[in-house]
Amino acid sequence: MKLKGNLINGLSLITIQGANALFPLLVFPFLLSVLGEGAFAELVVAESLALYVLTVSLYSFDTSGVQYIIEARKGGKLAKEADFFMNILAARIVLFLVSSLLLATLFGIFSDSSLNVLLAWLGFALGTVLQSNYYFQAIENNYELAFFILLSRFCGVLAAYLFINSPDDLLRASAILSGSFLVSGLAVLVVAINRFGLDSWRLVSTKKIVSLLRNGRHLFLGNISVLLFRNTNILILAGVSSSTSVSTYALAEKIIKSIQALARPLNQLFMPKAVKGWSAQPVDKRTSITALALIWKNTRTQVYLLLAVLPAIVLSIYVGHALGFLPGFSDDVIALVTLMAPSVIFGAANAMFGVVGLSLIGAQSYFSAVVFIVGVATFLYSLIASYAFSAYGAATAYIFAEVLLLILFIWKYHRNTTRGHFSS
Fold first, then answer.
1. Is 233 or 275 the better-scoring residue by pLDDT?
2. Same-domain pairing of 39 and 27
3. Cβ atoms within 10 A of the Cβ of 75, count?
4. What does the DSSP 8-state code read for residue 356?
5. Please, are residues 94 and 209 in contact by the beta-carbon 8 Å criterion?
6. CB-neighbour burial class of residue 155 (10 A; exposed 0-12, middle 13-18, buried 19+)
7. For the whole model, what pTM was predicted?
8. Most confident among 2-6, 12-16, 77-81, 233-237 (mean pLDDT)
9. Do 208 and 221 have their domain in common?
10. 237: closest CA among 44, 39, 54, 27?
11. Mean pLDDT of the 53-61 span
């Protein structure tokens, strides 16, 4: 029975990430060919800005929330589980409202682009917040989440092909893409409320929200810093290069992030196992070296699989482009994808050794500091490289950051003997 449950959960995770990965692969090349480089560049810039709101809104709960829910379920009390879920959701909604208002105000003052396009993309951030993926990951039951995401993404792709025909459809395109996430988020929220009951909103407490935000501040600062090298390249290119470079790089980055999304179920599958493995360790065994061995045990399979599969994926994209099956692709896009592909492997390892592992050994401050320093350094490097080499410079900055982060994360384990905070 447990084997069947793990299989269904694993397939659900693959379905979720597969839908999220195929969605941009099917839609964005089509949009580039229909909207043209100018409108497409405006669309991806608005999306990049919405990702800042999303990062602020998610806070650090995609990691800490998993740990909270796992600990709550140990006692078998649904009320404690609901308490964490509702207060995390409330905290995220507050963060979404505040950050959205700030971004929209600044955008309206300083940008000549359409504010409506940005507002449409904020639905993407809200939908992702409402999905509460971390919760279903923690309870290792992602079936319902997978169903709604697959259905909404399919409808989004279909709507894009049916209703987007020219550059004049920029706002409609943004609404369709964003709406796909908003619909799945609302549907999953209904599932969660049905599980906990409508009166579970009464569990929301300002004191609890503040406590959750305070406890997750280190990981949050790290997540914000990640944006300096994972989400600013498009904005930098928009400032120092042409719309052609922005469009070319944005499409290549979408492909890489889609591949990362396909690989993410591996992280999601092994992350709870690493946390549970740490909780099962005797207190006197919870050292950084033990954590390093535990994280590597739950990371090596991911690395080996990606080393085997990644070249085949890149080759398939090249063949599809060469045979004319991939509209919107160019030789430059394929070259950028090939250049950036190793970042998928380093990114998967960073998620385990950084976000998960450093939390276990109580090195959240180190995590935040390292990610911030690497983020700033990469931002400056990307600024110079993008100005000098356009899209190719931005691509080298993308992979440089991932490699440097992994080196600094692993170095910490060898010099740190602090016991983890999550020891209960």
1. 233
2. yes
3. 10
4. I
5. yes
6. middle
7. 0.81
8. 233-237
9. no
10. 44
11. 93
Q: Which two tokens stand for residue 275?
A: 């946390």
Q: Are residues 71 and 150 located together in one domain of the fold?
A: yes
> What domain count does the chain have?
2
Residue 328 falls in which region: left (phi positive, over 0), alpha (psi -120 to 50) or beta: left
Distance CA 30, CA 326 (A): 9
Which residue has 């889609």 as its token pair?
258
Nearest one of 64, 56, 92, 89 to 204, comparing CA atoms: 89
Per-residue three-class SS string for 379-424: HHHHHHHHHHHCHHHHHHHHHHHHHHHHHHHHHHHHHCCCCCCCCC
What are the b/e assignments for 235-257, b being 16+ CB within 10 Å? bbbbebbebbbbbbbbbbbbbbb
Given a cut of 80, is residue 140 above it in pLDDT?
Answer: yes
CB 219 within 8 A of CB 368: yes
Answer yes or no: is pLDDT of 420 > 60: no
162 and 25 fall within a common domain: yes
Distance between CA atoms of residues 384 and 317, nearest Å: 29
Residues 352 and 266 in one domain: yes
For residues 64 and 153, membership in a common domain is answered with yes
Question: ∠324-329-331 over CA atoms, to 5°?
Answer: 95
Q: Are residues 270 and 413 in the same domain?
A: yes
pLDDT above 70 covers what percent of the chain? 96
- Could you read off the pLDDT of 168-206 as tens digits, one per residue? 999 999 999 999 999 999 999 999 999 999 889 999 999
**The pLDDT of residue 5 is above 80:** no
The residue range of the domain holding 284 is 216-424
Cβ–Cβ under 8 Å, residues 143 and 8: yes
The total number of residues written for the chain in this structure? 424
Residue at which a domain ends, from 162, 194, 213: 213
Spell out a b/e string for 162-186, using b for 16 or more CB atoms within 10 Å of the CB, else e.
eebeeeebbbebbbbbbbbbbbbbe
- Please tell me the predicted confidence (pLDDT) of residue 216: 87
* CB-CB contact of 177 with 156 (8 Å): yes
- DSSP 3-state of 120: helix
Q: Looking at 213, 233, 258, which one is the last position of a domain?
A: 213
| pLDDT higher than threshold 90 for residue 112 | no
